[in-house]
Amino acid sequence: MREPSWYKNKQVIxxxxxxxxxxxxxxxxxxxxxxxxxxxxxxxxxPEADELAALGISVICGGHPPELISPDVALVVKNPGIPYxxxxxxxxxxLGIDIVTEVExxxxxxxxxxxxITGSNGKTTTTTWVGKMLAAAGMSPIVAGNxxxxxxxxxxxxxxxxxxxxxxxxxxxxxxxEFRPRIACLLNVYETHLDYHGTMEDYAGSKQKxxxxxQESDVAVVNWDDPFxxxxxxxxxxxxxxxxMQEELQKGxxxxxxxxxxxxxxxxxxxxxxxxxxxxxxxxxxxxxxxxGIPGEFNVENALAAVACxxxxxxxxxxxxxSLREFRGVEHxxxxxxxxxxxxxxxxxxxxxxxxxxxxxxxxxxxxxxxAGGLERGMDYLDLVPHFRERVKAVVALxxxxxxxxxxxxxxGINLIKTVDTANSPAEALDACVAxxxxxxxxxxxxxxxxxxxxxxxFASYEERGSIFKQSVHNL
Length: 476
Prior knowledge:
Structural class: alpha/beta
Low-confidence stretches: none
Largest sheet: 9 strands, mixed
Number of helices: 17
Strand content: 15-25%
Radius of gyration: 23 Å
Oligomer: single chain
Distance between the termini: 53 Å
Mean pLDDT: 93
Shape: globular
């Protein structure tokens, strides 16, 4: 992508309305470009269309006309979720037209330094946490991107005194060219989204683009325990700051048992701390892990990543520690819903792949009644069997993968299994799931919605799935 002023009087095609599409279209319109927005949904399904049309922006709904992409088009900005094999994207590529996502556009206009955070799991929690850490330290964070607020919209008003904290998906990163975050954080890489990327190489390569343009003055925060993350360290140009749950690092952020009095306390025994070791070897205790405000070892790992990012941005240890204590998590991510007669209900609808569900199950020591299932992506879910065997007493399965989830539960020796008919409405199906889970559960158990699958077979989004689940629980 060129500088914004270059696009004056040039044709720019924005594919997909949604939040990011609207923000991008308005920007290019303000820069004097000839903007056309195209969405395959019908006009009545696109409430944003009238607002753009009133500005004089051409809006085409209901499909992708063959003549949409011509050699005269200067730039295509596509919604991250639109696959590259889609007809207008493929045509633009054939003509050699530059194709980017909103992230690239926002980077070219944002005056604030950026912290870019990506990973297969944990990125929303980590991004939110970094924003809260910076705020607690008296800094000025703006949290945006895949997390909710359109990045272009946030970037317009950002100043050099702010920090732009950005959650980034592989879909967004694949469409970047010059994007360069001051601090780049890769949490983990698991097999997922292969229906979009086609291969694991393309998926992992899209994640790695986060670091593509970093320079020596930038910081690369990487998960030392993740094999892919560790493997790319020699290729990174920025200053590498690793984090680890498993090893004492020569420098970085990790967990360590500190001896009596090491952090100023007078306990009879040491405590497990989050600690930071500087390149010079100075050890700084940040907070005992038992004081972190949200449960689960995977959230300790998220905390390590967030601490590394916040420290790299200049946040104080005091502010970081306060946020670690006070943060109570993000909606739909291991979210406490209700305690009914000693049975505790948790909403983890954001778990859209098996690895995320495993991490959620590992957060509990009590028996779990699991509600799982969703969009069919060609997986067999047998990797869940040992975790089912260790932690799960009953499984309620729904969605396109319900029979596969039930088969994995049976392979684990679980006898309490129910599949829910998806012919019912999404709300009725989740009502049936919650009722079945409640019947399987006893006092002291955990009922956990952690689907291990995307939501799009039955729901518009994982947020809708989680919200309906919570309503079902409150209706018990």
